[in-house]
Amino acid sequence: MQIGEPLRTVIVEPLELPVGEPATIQPEPESPFPQPEPEKVPVAP
Amino acid sequence: MSIPDHISPIVAYRVWQWDSLGLKSLNNEQWFPGSALEANASRCGKGHAAPTDGCTCGVYAARDLAHLQEIGYARYGVNGEVYLWGTVVEHQLGWRAQYAYPKSIVLPHDAIPFKLSEAESRLETLIMYGVDIFVMPVASPPIQLWSKQSGLDRAGFDWLIEKPAPPRVLLF
């Protein structure tokens, strides 16, 4: 990647990484994506 | 004792490849969910910690999205914001960092499989990173697909359901 000439060096504090994303640890629903309703098929008597 | 110059990570922009295992650099370095990518100085064979002034090693990122687009990188895969920290060398148009982790991911509209079941399994490889995920439709602003705080976004789900079918290839 072309990023040009170096200007300076800096020291940056560590990052606290995301751990155990809350959106994926919820027990329900099983899939994080809503499932479409099954089509209702008319049943002959 | 070294005193940091920045107390919060630098946010820059970069491009990743996206496959069934998740994100990779364009040089095929795997980015693992929940783990920082550390610059691998052994690749340059000079035996120093990465990055340094006199070398080209480090995790690369652009200063802004416009620069990624200008140099043609934005078309190589998915792009997004990236956190950089540790020892970081600032360049005129970007950065070389010791550590990096994705902050957000923007998917081109055609990067997402058309079938919802396939899209779901592919997106799960990105959800594991615990970041916000957006899709970039044709000629409209990004739509949030996934929030790291609240999960699947309603507008994003609607886009997944209604997204246009890929063009058919006609054989004569």
Write the layout of secondary structure elements.
The complex is a heterodimer of chains A (45) and B (172).
Chain A lengths: L5 E7 L33
Chain B lengths: L9 E10 L2 E3 L5 E2 L5 E2 L20 E4 L2 H6 L7 E14 L2 E9 L1 E5 L7 H12 L4 E5 L6 E5 L3 E2 L1 H9 L10
Parallel strand pairs in B: 8-9
Antiparallel strand pairs in B: 1-2, 1-6, 2-3, 4-7, 5-7, 6-7, 9-10, 10-11
Question: Could you explain the architecture of this structure?
Answer:
- The complex is a heterodimer of chains A (45) and B (172).
- Chain A has one strand at 6-12.
- Chain A starts with 5 loop residues before the first strand and ends in a 33-residue tail after the last strand.
- Chain A has no helices and one strand.
- The termini of chain B are far apart.
- In chain B, a hairpin with a 2-residue loop joins strand 6 and strand 7 (94-102).
- In chain B, the strands form two sheets. In chain B, strands 1, 2, 3, 4, 5, 6 and 7 form a seven-stranded antiparallel sheet that branches. Chain B has a four-stranded mixed sheet with strand order 8-9-10-11.
- Chain B is elongated.
- Chain B folds into two domains: 10-104, no CATH class; 115-160, no CATH class.
- Chain B is α+β, with helices and mostly antiparallel strands and 172 residues long.
- Chain A binds chain B through residues 1-15, 17-24, 26, 31-34, 36, and chain B through 2-10, 14, 34-36, 51-53, 60-63, 71, 73, 83-97, 99, 101, 116, 120, 124, 127-131, 146-152, 157.
